[in-house]
Amino acid sequence: MISIQKVNKNFGKLHVLKQVDLDLSMGRSYALVGPNGSGKTTLIKSILGLVVPSSGEIVFEGKSIAKDWMYREKIGYMPQIGRYPENMTIGQLIDMMKNIRKNAEVLDDSIIEGFKLYKMFDKRMHALSGGTRQKVSAALAFLFNPPVLILDEPTAGLDPISVEILKEKILEEKHRGKLLIISSHILSDLDELTSDMVYIYEGQVHYNNTIQTLKEETQEKKLGKAIATMIGQKQLIDSVNR
Amino acid sequence: MNRIIKYVFYDILRTRFIIFYTALLLVSTFAMFQLDSDPNKVVMSLLNVVLMVVPLVSIVFTTIHFYNSYEFIELMLAQPINRRVIFIGEYLAVAMSLCMAFAVGVGIPLGIYGVSATGMSLLFCGIILTLVFVSLAFLAAVLTRDKAKAIGIALLFWFYFSLIYDGFLLWFVYAFADYPLEKITLGLISLNPVDLARVIMLLQLDISALMGYTGAFYRQFFGSSFGIIFSTLILFLWVIIPFFIALRIFSKKDL
Q1: TM spans, by residue (chain B) (predicted)?
Q2: Cα–Cα dist B189/B221, whole Å
């Protein structure tokens, strides 16, 4: 579905992505894990075309995204920090997005419903709290019922009840066979929501396999412990090789 | 594209700056017509507004607007829309609203107090200078990520074309006064859209005699149909070239 081939990205002297090779296939849900500044958001933004790779190619359904833009119709994106026109109301923003993505056949407003956003439709974006903003981002990502969902730290900043609503929604979409890419630092969430793990460290993919395999390899039951063990083993191997 | 233009337009109208700008132009043009009965003299006074105020307002407003709609641009880029369409839509919406403000603010009084050839060429110069400085502002805005820096670059463009370049030209003509400079200064004037507009207007107003021998040369050149086509073409290049450079940078920019 999405194939990332030898992608490099430099921001000035900073080498953020180093020869990233990654295949993401339909029906799977990927957890994107790595320390702060490891390049997770840059990778996500490259898939969306917001960041243009310095070299390498990203292929979506067999077509390079470099000159294409219609593929974004198939992606729902929830950014880490949602930035929206400040003097629009929630209602105007959602209407505008519906107007711009007219091709969507089925609209899915279950998130708007679930977060009770209809009640706040005439609130302006600049008056919203960080959490409410996050809810708007989630609502927009799911609204057009896209086959691919990219969620950048979806649960950060949400209250516990909203987190549960969102997680339920994500699970529902996962069972419908969508491709999910979720970046998060809350590993217990990822344990429930995802089937595969991609571990990124300093711009390189260090691990890419199913979570089941990871747990078996490390003989741990929890994802958090499994990742810690995996990193420990890697460091040990690295030090021996050196 | 139309949808993008519509939303940007809507956003510009909401800030009310454009309405204020239109009103300012309207009031000052009417005031000048009240003060002087000779329409040619009024056009002469308006020329200063066109050459100084219009570029300044266009370039500063456009740069600030670009940065204020950064969120909108970011949001649109994650949607199934071509980057170029977003950029061109932004450009057209801003350029159209500024041109309309100028056309209404200066055009209506001109129409009421009598349409003249000089009045029409003043309108033309004002609109094309607006377009030139909107293009330059977009270029300044995509060159950097920082709003303050971009406004700095935009102001630098304005200072350069309105003040610094003229100083340089004056020094150049003065220093090489012993040589035949007509053709060279003609070339140098083409490098500055504000100067180009000024020369076109001065020749229209029939005061080129004040410029002596050089004035006569310009009159011969710009007065001919070739001269008019040439200067208009150069002014259009001043709109198109910065616009395309900005478009190129924008289509590869990381957001």
Answers
A1: 12-33, 45-67, 88-115, 121-143, 155-176, 196-216, 228-250
A2: 13
Provide residues of A within 8 Å CB-CB of chain B: 11, 45, 48-52, 69-73, 75, 77, 79, 83-87, 96-97, 99-101, 103
pLDDT score at A217: 87
Portion 38-77 of B in contact with A at CB < 8 A: 69-72, 74-77
B9 interface with A at CB cutoff 8 Å: no
**Least confident piece of the model among A221-230, B133-142, B222-231:** B222-231
Query: B214 near B185, Cβ under 8 Å?
Result: yes
CA pair distance B128, B96, nearest whole angstrom: 11
Check B80 against A99: CB less than 8 A apart.
Answer: no
Q: Give the one of B71, B80, B81 whose C-beta lies nearest to A83's C-beta.
A: B71
Extents of the domains making up chain A: 2-241
Residue A225, pLDDT > 90, answer no
How far is B169 from B50, CA to CA, in rounded Å? 20
CB contact under 8 A, B79 and A97: yes
A86 contacts in chain B (CB < 8 Å): 71
- Fold topology of A2-241: Rossmann fold (3.40.50)
- ipTM beyond cut 0.90: no
Domain coordinates of chain B in residue numbers? 2-251
Which residue is listed with tokens 């029409």? Answer: B120
Strand extents, DSSP E, chain A: 2-11, 14-24, 29-33, 55-60, 63-64, 75-78, 148-152, 179-183, 196-201, 204-210
By the 10 Å C-beta count (0-12 exposed, 13-18 middle, 19+ buried), B167 is classed as exposed
